[in-house]
Amino acid sequence: MSLIIHIYYTGQNGSARKFAEEMTTSGIVDRVRQEEGNLSYRYFFPADDPETVLLIDEWENQAALDCHHRSEMMQEIATLRTKYRLRMKVEQMERQENRL
Questions:
Q1: What b/e readout covers 36-51, taking b as 16+ CB neighbours within 10 angstroms?
Q2: Can you give the pTM of this predicted structure?
Q3: Rounded CA separation 29/55 (Å)
Q4: Which residues face 7 on adjacent strands?
Q5: What Cα–Cα distance (Å) separates residue 54 from each residue in 47, 63, 96?
Q6: Distance separating alpha carbons of residues 89 and 36, to the nearest angstrom
């Protein structure tokens, strides 16, 4: 079973998109993707809401996600979130493996 996280970042005047761009160009995204237990970490831009960015990330298990949350990168991410004055909405789901 893996964990899938949806984080909706919403701002004003394109700030959410700028946040995602800086996350990428600063190398934070690549570092998260290299963390043990990370299966996916991708940004999406809703066609009907130019002020929101959706992050979908997937982790092998709760322990991997907890380790990520304790990492130094979380402070870097929080600093950028504050810089761009973003609001967050978080959803967490479990992916169940197919069973016969």
A1: ebbeebebeeeeeeeb
A2: 0.91
A3: 11
A4: 55, 90
A5: 11, 23, 22
A6: 25
Phi/psi at 34 (nearest 5 deg)?
A: -90, -5
DSSP, collapsed to helix, strand or coil, labels residue 84 as coil
Q: Give the model confidence (pLDDT) of 73-85 as tens digits.
A: 999 999 999 999 9
Q: Which two tokens stand for residue 76?
A: 């870097």
Tell me the domains of the chain and their CATH numbers: 2-94 (3.30.70.100)
Q: Where are the alpha helices (DSSP H) in 1-100?
A: 15-25, 28-33, 62-70, 73-83
Single-letter code of the amino acid located at 9: Y
Q: What is the pLDDT of residue 96?
A: 81
CA-CA distances (angstroms) from residue 49 to 15, 36, 53, 63? 13, 33, 8, 33
